[in-house]
Design goal:
Layout: E1 2-6, E2 12-16, E3 21-25, E4 33-34, E5 45-50, E6 53-58, E7 66-67, E8 70-71, E9 76-77, E10 84-86, E11 89-94
Parallel strand pairs: 3-4
Antiparallel strand pairs: 1-2, 1-11, 3-5, 5-6, 6-9, 7-8, 7-10, 10-11
């Protein structure tokens, strides 16, 4: 799996999600992906893989984490096509596409 992150300028980054957890936030150290927006907390959100599903949880940020426009208050299971919003960033969790299987 991979986490696709797009900032307000349209710059897109792809973060491999190979382990059980990754974190995003404003702090350049201690996060899997650094988000340089002032509306992002130092450790803003965590993505977890458990029981074959992927979840997102807000880590007590001031501005919150939104899934499909709704601010989440607890861990939320992600489904294909869900849009996660953190500050000025849009995120989506996507499956890896096998290059050999591409048409």
């Amino acid at each position: 799996m991979k986490l696709v992150i797009e900032d307000a300028e349209g710059t897109r980054s792809v973060v491999p999600f190979d382990g059980d957890e990754l974190t995003v936030g404003r702090a350049p150290e201690g996060n899997t992906f650094h988000m340089a927006d002032r509306d992002v907390s130092r450790r803003h959100a965590r993505f977890l893989r458990a029981g074959g599903a992927v979840f997102v949880e807000d880590l007590g940020s001031l501005t919150g984490t939104r899934v499909n426009g709704e601010r989440i208050a607890a861990r939320r299971r992600l489904r294909e096509g869900d849009l996660i919003e953190i500050g000025a960033y849009d995120l989506a969790l996507l499956p890896d596409v096998d290059a050999a299987g591409a048409g």
